[in-house]
Structure formats: C-alpha cells, structure tokens
Amino acid sequence: MAASAAARTIIENCAIATVDANDTEYASGYVVVAGNRIESIGAGRAPEGLENVVRRIDGTGHLVTPGLVNTHHHFYQWITRGLATDHNLFNWLVALYPTWARIDEAMVKAAAQGSLAMMARGGVTTAMDHHYVFPQGSGDLSGAIIGAASDMGVRFTLARGSMDRSEKDGGLPPDFAVETLEGALAATEETVKKHHDASFDAMTQVAVAPCSPFSVSTELLKQGAELARRLGVRLHTHGSETVEEEQFCKELFGMGPTDYFESTGWLGSDVWMAHCVHMNDSDIAAFARTGTGVAHCPSSNARLAAGIARVPDMLAAGVPVGLGVDGTASNESGELHTELRNALLINRLGAHREAALNARQALRLGTYGGAQVLGRADQIGSLEAGKLADLVMWKIDGIGHSTIADPVTAIVFGAAAPVTLSLVNGKPVVEDNRLITVDEDAVARDARAEAQRLARIVAQG
Ligand SMILES: [Zn+2]
Fold it and tell me: Residues 345, 393: one domain?
C-alpha cells in the first residue's frame, strides 16, 4: 500500500523523546503514523489537511518514546520464578537444570505468553527469546514461542539456542537435557529457514545462539558461527558473566572468554552477547574494534551476584550496548523498565560514580542501543520519518510522575509509568495500560497451571 493511501494515526500535544542521533526532543509535538511507518514527527501540532486519518489522539500529559527493545531473555523461565533465590550463577544452574530439562511445548507456550505479556504491557515493542533447552520429544518449542509472539503482536527475535556439553563432558546440564552437535546445527538451520524474515518490516527474525562457553563444545561454537554467516543471520550467546566462567575458560581453553570467543569466530558486528561483566580493557577494545554488541542485564547480574558490567567504558569505546531482562528465574520482575532504572543506578555504584550514566543514556540503551545489537537500527529504536511505527505513550501526569521535573527523568528514575498506548508496526498492542491483543488474566492462569504441572512432574521424578 502506498503511504499516501495508508490509514493515518495522529498523536499530538505530547512531549517526545525521539532518541535520534541528536537526541532531539520536543516539549510539545506530534507524530503521524501512516500504515506501519512513521510519516512525520516534529514540534507543535500535526500538519493540517492530512487525508485518511482514522485516529487522532490527544497526548496531553504524556511522553512519547520509541518502543523498548529487549535483547536478552529466556521465556521458559517464566514458570520457574522464585526458585534458588540465594545462589550464584553456577549453583543456580545446577539447582534448576533438572527442572528445566522437563519442559514441553505446552509449558513453553504458556511461559512465552507470560514473559511477552509482562514486557509488552510495560512498553516493550521488540522482544527476544534465547531458548536453548530442547529435551528430546518435547515438541515444536520454537514454533510455540514464535506463535506466542505473533499472537501478542510484538516484533520478535528468536535466538535458537543449543547445548551439547553435558555433565559427562564437564558441563553443567544433565546429559538428557542437551542435543548432539549435528542435531543442534540441523535444527537451528531448519528454524532459520522456516521462520527468519530478512525484510525491512520483519516481525520475526532468528539468530544462531549456542548457550554459553561452559555448556557447548568448541566445535558447536565454530560451526554455529559458520552456519549463521552462511545463512546471513545474527549470532548470540552468553559471555563473561561471572568469575567462575572466566576460571572455567582459563582452565579448559587456556584463555579468558573474550579471547576464546575470538578464536572460535565469535567476535563481529553480527554478534551480540549477554552480560559481559568481567571484561578487561583489551576485551572491551576487541568488542569495539569488531563491533560486537552487548546485552546488559543489570538486575540479573545483581541477583546472581555476578558483578557490574563496565557499561560507561563500553559506550566510551564505541561498543553497541542494549538492555536485557534476562530469564525470569534470575529476574522475577520480567519488565524492561527495571533494567533502564537499574542500568543507571547500578553503574553509578561502579568506578564512574555519578558520571556513569544519565537518564537519556539509559533510555537510549533500552531503545536505539537494543535495535543496534539486534541489527535493526535502520528500522526501529528511534522515532524518525521512514522508520517503523513502534512507539510508546507513557502517562506522566499521574500520581507516580506528575511532580518529577523532566519527562525522561520521570520514566527512567521514577516508577514504571503506565502505558496509555503502544504501537508495534503501526498497530495498537496496549491501550489504557492493558494488553488488547491477548487476555492478560487468561495468560496468568495458564502460566500458573503449567508451572504447577512442571513442579508436579519434577516432584514425581
Ligand atoms: Zn541469560
């Protein structure tokens, strides 16, 4: 459909933070959405005389920003929240793998719906799921996850994960929870071919995503990188999360995680890694030189006592950085607003103190930075004419925010602001702080039923 014939939605009288290259903001401005694109944006009232306007929204008392972009998550963990609450990463993994190894398609679907609903109602318009547990006979887990995202109406990247280093090879997962090298590669290729859409306005993309250096073989990393580059898709994994991982890499491979990744083809502008907490200056320089992206997950890093990622140093070096909720077994909140706020607050506890990050940098991490690490910065992540219409109207004139001096400060430093409207690809997903694409109460009920079913199966052994 040509833009001139597309249905138009006009939002006006709102504060706007575009998060474009100049951080352009309007104290009172407008956005015109035509079809699935932003047609125009600016200060003051929308242009007169536009045709085919199907909706005109008074944004008084609101801040409009790009939709939030989540860059690291494990949806299945929605049904294993609140367990092993006082463990570090390795002990937490060992405690939870026997439960995770029992998941099936119905559980994964309900967990995906719960994870997606929590994020979408909090302003996430692009979600991702790094799914790496594929027990034998568990059904079409990738299809269930992608279906849940499509039903919710959010833009989505599935990072098709895998594990092939189990207990018998010195890894942490139980033997029956992993795939073979050949099986993992074949299933990943099939998922890319079936679901990945490379077009500008794609709603579903797929990345190649072996789980972590300590749960996959060197060969799976190497061949996974070759597969991704042959298919033209991105690569994702966990990296440099804890001191224990660093020790593991040094003992097993004779080098730290970043050098190990470089030796297996895992640094590059088509790669993004979760965490990157334990990085020295040369690691950060290697990420900057190669354009490797980072998914910063401050709440999960705090819960698992992993440490504080050096985000100000990464940004200063030019490393692309986005935010990640991480799985909700290590971040029960499951909403991205917490990560904007914690990125800002936790980094101020590090070496740079109050100069670490400001509210606008935190908003940029959660929007444009996320789009960069997902390889979609040309399409989403900022509000600019021609980009896709993924945006959020935050209500900032209510009790939580009406006395905070500045709109961006209000949504980052303040409580999670109610979402009056979110658009994904030009279509409403949230209206008046409720999801309109799915029944939130039914999602909550189904997820609880599946969590209880999983707990029963585990209890029965
Ligand atoms: Zn993770």
Answer: no
Predicted confidence at residue 214, as pLDDT, reads 87
Are 209 and 159 spatial neighbours (Cβ–Cβ below 8 Å)? yes
* Structural domain span for residue 16: 3-66+379-435
pTM confidence score: 0.97
Distance of CA 9 from the midpoint of ligand 1 (Å): 37
List, for residues 176-218, the tens digit of each pLDDT value. Answer: 889 999 999 999 999 999 999 999 999 999 999 999 998 999 9
**For position 253, which CATH number holds?**
3.20.20.140
Count of C-beta atoms within a 10 Å radius of residue 232: 10
pLDDT tens digits for range 387-402: 999 999 999 999 999 9
**Whether 75 and 58 share a structural domain:** no
103 and 213 both lie in a single domain: yes
The reply to whether 15 and 117 lie within a common domain is no
Percent of the residues in the chain that have a pLDDT greater than 90, as a whole number: 94
Confirm if 31 and 76 have CB atoms less than 8 A apart: no
* 450 occurs within a structural domain: no
Distance 143 CA to ligand 1 centre (A): 20
Q: Quote the pLDDT of residue 172.
A: 81
Pairing of strands 8-17, 235-239: unpaired
Is the CA virtual torsion 14, 15, 19, 25 positive or negative? Answer: positive
DSSP string, 209-224: EE--TTTS-HHHHHHH
What is the CA(352)–ligand 1 centre distance, in A?
Answer: 26
**Cα-to-centroid distance, 63 and ligand 1 (Å):** 31
Total domain count for the chain? Answer: 2
Cα(3) to ligand 1 centroid in Å equals 40
How far is ligand 1, taken at its centre, from the CA of residue 5, in Å? 43
**Is a pLDDT exceeding 90 seen at residue 152?**
yes
* Ligand 1 geometric centre to CA of 328 (Å): 9
Share of the chain above pLDDT 70, in %: 99
Which of 329, 356, 373 lies at the terminal end of a domain, its last residue?
373
Give the distance (Å) from ligand 1 centre to CA of residue 245. 13
281 shares a domain with 137: yes
Residues 130 and 229 in one domain: yes
Q: What is the enclosing helix (H) or strand (E) of 289?
A: helix 281-290
